[in-house]
Design goal:
This protein has eleven helices and 16 strands. The strands form two sheets. The protein has an eleven-stranded mixed beta sheet, with helices on both faces. Helix 1 packs across helix 6. The protein folds into two domains: about 210 residues, DHBP synthase, CATH 3.90.870.10; about 90 residues, Rossmann fold (3-Layer(aba) Sandwich), CATH 3.40.50.11030. The longest helix has 16 residues. The structure holds threonylcarbamoyladenylate and magnesium ion. The site of threonylcarbamoyladenylate has 30 residues, from strand 5 and strand 6. The site of magnesium ion has 3 residues, from loops.
Length: about 325
């Protein structure tokens, strides 16, 4: 495994590896992806092996230009073009009926395919140089925290990945919004930076939220994105007491909070106040505290409102609630 700054030489090497059916991790604006040639079933199977992910969990196909929509999907409703026009390149994945030739390995055996045009310049350059679609889940082991730095990918996957392109820290920090357009009504399967309201205002119709649908999304499982250390969500008013009780029991406690607590500085992370900046820092913060051999990570509960929906969704999966 090699980490290389994503210059022209490294991009050329990445394209060659993809053509040979190998795995290349690359930065996107959301999180790092573990990429393989989406048209090559054997290459796609390598993704599942590297992640330890069950084969029936579908992957998103990343495309470098709009013509990819018709290459990978069919029966494309106007809504898909409207969303693509407004939000691509960007952190939105759209689920559509798949074209016949899309390998079932990519779609987890389903007749739909997830498509996304990422906006990170390295991702776009890679896609355009490769020319085809790149299947890429987040570049972490199954059920672990998604990587937002090249070094996180190396920690997660080691030699299971052939090359890691380093494009710095991911700007969005949480995975893309997923909207399913394969059913009668648009269905939001995973919240992300692009909000339900923003999608509704483009489509001029209301969007269901994770209504029971035929599709499986691993991001919708209860245990996901989780640190190995027990992480507990805690209301602001309960923080100081919870911290005191846990330390009185001899527990080593890490904190992700807004106000500094009387605890060692190296085990507490002061989180950004704005939701989008918090999202950027979320996974790296969990990962940092997870590396400190603590007994518990206490996470201060963010506001429960629309702006924080994606953050609260990921925290809900990474933590248990203080009871
Ligand atoms: O931001 C992102 O989307 C990142 C970057 C790398 O692009 N990728 C990502 O991939 O988060 P992954 O595999 O970790 O999550 C993709 C989600 C999964 O929950 C998967 O089940 C869902 O997309 N998905 C993919 N294809 C689908 C389909 N045909 N129907 C329903 N869900 C699908
Ligand atoms: Mg993932």
């Amino acid at each position: 495994m090699q980490i290389r700054l994503a210059d022209a030489d490294a991009l050329a090497a990445a394209v060659q590896l993809l053509q040979q059916g190998r795995l290349v991790a690359f930065p996107t604006e959301t999180v790092y992806g573990l990429g393989a040639d989406a048209a090559n079933p054997e290459a796609v199977r390598r993704i599942f092996a590297a992640k330890g992910r069950p084969a029936d969990h579908p992957l998103i196909v990343h495309i470098g230009d709009l013509s990819g929509l018709n290459t990978w999907a069919q029966h494309i409703p106007d809504a898909a073009y409207q969303l693509a026009e407004q939000f691509w390149p960007g952190p939105l994945a759209i689920i559509l009926p798949k074209q016949a030739q899309v390998p079932l390995e990519v779609t987890g055996g389903q007749q739909t395919v997830g498509l996304r045009m990422p906006s990170h310049p390295v991702a776009l350059q890679l896609l355009q140089a490769f020319g085809g679609g790149i299947a890429a889940p987040s570049a972490n082991r199954y059920c672990r925290i998604s990587p937002t730095l090249a070094s996180h990918v190396a920690e997660e996957l080691g030699d299971a990945v052939d090359l890691i392109l380093d494009g710095g820290a991911c700007q969005v920090g949480v995975e893309s919004t997923i909207v399913d357009l394969s059913g009668a009504q648009p269905n939001l399967l995973r919240p992300g930076q692009i909000s339900r309201a923003a999608i509704e205002s483009v489509l001029g119709e209301s969007v269901l939220v994770a209504a029971a649908s035929q599709v499986r999304t691993s991001g919708m499982m209860d245990v996901h994105y989780a640190p190995a250390t027990r992480a507990v969500l805690c209301a602001t008013d309960d923080l100081a007491d919870a911290y005191r009780q846990l330390t009185a029991q001899g527990k080593k406690v890490g904190l992700m909070v807004w106000q500094a607590q009387t605890s060692p500085a190296n085990t507490q992370i002061l989180m950004p106040l704005a939701a989008d900046v918090y999202a950027q820092a979320l996974y790296a913060s969990l990962r940092k505290l997870d590396s400190l051999q603590l007994d518990v990570i206490l996470v201060e509960q963010p506001p429960v409102d629309e702006a924080w929906r994606a953050v609260n969704d990921r925290l809900g999966k990474a933590t248990v609630r203080l009871s």
